[in-house]
Structures are given as structure tokens and as C-alpha cells.
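Thread: Modeling a multi-component assembly for a lab meeting

Hi all, long-time lurker, first post. My supervisor asked me to bring a structural picture of a complex we are working on to next week's group meeting, and I have zero experience with this. I have the sequence lines for every component (693 residues in total). Could someone generate the structure of the whole assembly? Inputs are pasted exactly as I received them:
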Amino acid sequence: MIASILAVLPAAEGIPNPSIPTSWVLLLAALLFILGIYGFLVRRDLIVVFMSIELMLNAANLTFLAAARERMLDPEGQVYAIFVITVAAVEAAVGLALLIAWFRLRATLDVETAVELEG
Amino acid sequence: MDYDFASYLRDLRTIGPELILCGTILVLFLVDLWRIGRNRTISWVLAPLVTFAACYGLYLVPATTGIDVDLWPEFLGLTAVYAVVTVADLRWRGRDRWVPGAVAVIGAALACLRLWQQGVEVFGEGAAAFSWGGLVRVDAFGVLLRGLACLTLLVTSWFTIFYAPMRRDPGAKGVTEFLACLAAAAAGGMFLVATENLLFIYLSLELLSLCSYLQVGMLKGDRRSSEASLKYLIYGSVASGFMLFGFSLLYGFSGELAIPKIGQFLQTMPRHSPEGVLMTVGVLLSFSGFAYKLTLVPFHFWAPDVYEGAPTPTTAFLSVGSKAVSFGIMLRFLHMLTGDIVWAPGLVHLAALAAVVTMTYGNLAALHQSNLKRLFGYSSIAHAGYMLLGVVTVFQFMEDPATGLLREGRFFGEGYAAVLFYLGAYLLMNLGAFGAVIFLANRTGSEEIEDIRGLGWKSPWVGGAFIVFLLSLTGIPPTAGFFAKWYVFRAAIDGGFLWLAVVAGINTVISLFYYFRIGRMLFLRDGSEAFFEAPRAPWLAAVLLLLAFGTLWFGVFPGAAREVAAEAARSLGW
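Re: Modeling a multi-component assembly
Sure thing. I ran the full set together rather than chain by chain. Output:
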């Protein structure tokens, strides 16, 4: 299974001395993504949940950059990664603002206390 | 490079409505600054100067470049804002909390006007035009959905003026920020349906989402609002992470960011290779991001909580505007799967399953709700299921008589047209329903169904309008909701999904129970009616009557709207 996934992309062409094969980078990205989902599902602290989400975004970034490197440093993929970093920063700002509003009302960051809206 | 100033202006013009919304946000904050000082010198001297300078700037563009752009609506809008703010400051000072709302309404109306002009140009042309180097696609489909988002903004800004928790807010603080978020979210939604580039889709979807999170949490000090915003933010970020990873896979294997080019790549690549499997994963992950916005099961769990905790105008915006543009981008996305006979059947059956589960879950869960907004949250989930019916039927597969294999996926535009009609009808009836909730909650101070007991007799006009919206949501003639359901069901039957139409019909009957419960409570006369005195809101009631009239109008004469929807569906390019 893993071998077949690793064999998906041909070896990089046109890039001087590609030291790390693209498929390895993709595998790392997939692992990061799964790690992010795991953290989101398991952790209870809201800050750590946010960090897990950032991990997922960065997994996507890594995929974009690896694919861009594969295609002679295609600018589209690299620009995409820069935009994603920017959006992630904005998302963190919005998230922390809402987190502070939440903390002021409850004095805890435990997700398990979010139970007032049920039914 | 022949990209001169004239083509730059032409490009600017294609996103004119969105630019107007951005300008509206700026003006909103300027007005807020001005009103904090409350200084009459500013009112009399500085404000006319700023307005005049802005008008002169607008005038300079055509005058100096010699290019014929007509900017009179913008002049008019600026002047109207100036008049509203000054007159309110001098005449109603202290009771002029409606000013930010009025400014947002003016901006939204201006954007709607510009979109209308674009629509007049685009409809009947057929071919799509591109601007910004292919980033923005101008076609009838996009203009129609942008119009829906813009109309939602117009109506929800109007609702915000009357929404009691924000009126009570000392000094009307926070209202300006709220309206700015609303306008930015609408602009994001409008960009979303005006493009087919993955980067642009991601950015505009994030603009829509981030501003929605902020709106939901805008009732500072309200524990439910804070909880709803955090839930929405966390689930939403995860969903957008899924979608982004899907995009990165699509880009990674095809090397393209434009949806049609990815579609071409999909048709030429080997299907059952690991590459093909990973592309399928990418497509599915991308769809999960849209499904989240559309509250399709199993991505629905945020919806009831958020709809209940959010300020009611936001709830209305999320259930109508946000949903319309998300459906739009999903339909555009399906574009790239046309002609793909290996995955499309599987995806279609997955969508059919999602439609059945979504509508059934929404309707069953709505049956025993006590909170009006929560009930409409579940009802909104159910309606997303009905709309998905139209999406399911877009591909038809013909069996090759010789080999017995599925031969060709033929596009079936009826389903898309039905979805677009449904979205328009849903805008009228659901915005109306939420407006009625605001009206009634202002009188009782509560959003529980029990508390609207007998209020229909006290405000017969609004009560009557509410009944019209409820009938329409159920799908009873002569309302727009009836024809919306009729078209969608018929598309499902024509597309070979008779069983789906039958399930949807049963669901309609289930929904009758909870909509009827609201209507019965509204006109219950058992001596225990709620009795509350509240300031009358004739202007809110007027908009509700207008929406009710629209609901009835399109229930009696659906033909023209249906034609518009069909043309928009054709403009997608099949």
C-alpha cells in the first residue's frame, strides 16, 4: 500500500539534485494531517485544539509546496502556500479573540464545558 | 503586456458590487467615528467636505481618464448616507441607533443595483466573460447567486436595525462592527460564486467564514453566543482544513488551480491507479468543506447550536446567504466531474444518501424543539436535503445497449435550475420567518415557541405573514415554497430517482407537524396569551409583508423566475 503511494509521482525532473523524493514529502504531509485530526478529536484544551487545526493547514501547505517543487517550482502552488499562512494567522487572531470572550464568561478553556446549547 | 488602465477599469467593474460593499464597511466605520464625537461642527463642516471629496474622487475617474464609466449610483449613495447621518444627528439625536443599519442598507441596495445592471448585461448572452486574468468568471449563474447573497445582506441589515439585543446595547456599540462583519461576509460569499480558481475559492470562503464566526459571537457577555461562536469556529476551521487538504491534493496531481482544467485532467488520467484514488480523496475532502457550510449530515452538528446562540440576523444570513453561495460553489465544482463515468455514479449515489439522511434527520429532530431559532436550524438542515435532490439528478447515465455498461454522463440542467429556484424561494420565506421571529421576540423577550402564544391576534399583519412563510416552508400552494419543491421533486423523478422523491414527499408531511405547531401557537386563544407591550415596529412589519407578498407572487407566477433559473443553470457551460 505505502509502496504504491510512494510510487505515485515520478522522480523530480528539472530540479537540481532533488535530495528528498516528493512522495516522501507527501507522506509526511498526510501524517501531519492525520495527526491534526487526532489532536482535534482527542485534546480537550481549546488552545491545543487550535494548534491541531494549524497542523492540518500546514499539512496542506506542505503538499502545495512539494507539488510546486515537482513542477519546476511552479509559482501557483508557492503563492497558495503564502496565502494559506496569511489566512491561518487571521484565523488565529479571530480564534483567540473569541477564546478571550469565552474565557471571560467561564474562566476555563476546557471544551467539555460547552454544553449550554443542547437539544 | 497590453494590460492598460482601461482594461483595469473594466476588471474593476466586474467586481463593482463587492467593491461597493467594501466601501460600505469603510463608510460605516467613518460614520461610527463621527458619531462618537457627536460634535455639530463636524456634522456641519467636516462631513460635507469628506462627502464632497469622495464624490469628487469618483467624478475624477471618468473625467481624467476619458473612459466612460457612469458612477451616478455611487454619488447618490454617498449623498444619501450623508443626508441620513446628518439629519439623524440633528433631528433624532439620542434616538438614532438605526443610523449604522441605514448606512449598511444603502450600501447593500447600491450593490444590488449594480448587480442588477450586470445581470441585464449578462443574461441572454450565454457566454461567460473572464476578468482579472481569468480569476473572476462573470456569467448568469454567478450573477444570480451574487444577487441572492446581496439581497440577503440587504434584508438582514434591515433586520439588524430592529433586533432588540443590539438596540439595547448602550451607545449602540458593536452594531457597526456587526454590520461590517455582515457586509464582509456577504462580499466573501459573492466572490465565492464569481470564481472557479481554487485559491480564490479558498480565500473568499475564509472571508465568509471568519466574518461569520465573529458575527455569531458579537453578543458580548451572552454565554450562549460565545459558546456558539467557539463551536462554529472550531468545527469550521476543521472543515476548511479538510477542504484545503483536498485542494492541495487536486493541485498536487493535476498542477492546475482552475476547476475546468482539473476536470480535463480528471478525464485523461488512469482511474484505478493510486493517483486516481488520491484524486478521489481530494474531491471528497473538498466536498466535505462545502457540505459543512450546507449543513449536510454528517457535517450538520454545529448548525442547531449556532443558529440558536447567534444573533437572529446572523442566523438568517447563515441559513440563506451562506447556504446559497455554498450551493453555488458546489454546483461549479460538480462541473469538473461532468463526463466522468467512473466516479460520478458513486458520488451521485453518495449525494442521494446524504440528501435522504439530511432531510429525514432535520425533520425528525425539528419535531420536538421548543426554541424557535433552534427549530428553524433543524428545518434549515431539512431544506438543504431537499435542495440536494436537485444536485443529485444532474447526471444521467445511459446504458450502452451493446455492452451493458454505463456509457456517458449527460448533464441534466433541470436539476440545477430547480436548485436555483429553490434557493430564491428559500430566501424569501426563510428570511421572512426569521424576521417574524425578531418581531415576536422583541415583544416577548423570548425565543421559545410557548411564548408567542396568541401573539398573532395582537399583530395580525405579521402573524398573517408568518403563516404565509410557514405554509411556504411546508410547501403548500399557492406559495413559492410549493413550486420550489415541485420543481425539485420533478427533476428527481425525471432523473430516475423516484424513490428519492417519495422519501422527500414523506418528509414534507413530517415537516407539516412542526410548522403547524408554530402557526397554532401563534393564533391560540385560550385566555393564557402572552401580553406584552413593546414599541411598534411598522418598518420591520413592512419588510415582512413585502417578503410575504414575494412568496405569494412567485407561488402564483413562478414561470419568469423559473426561466431565469434555467438560463443561469445553462450559463455554467455544459
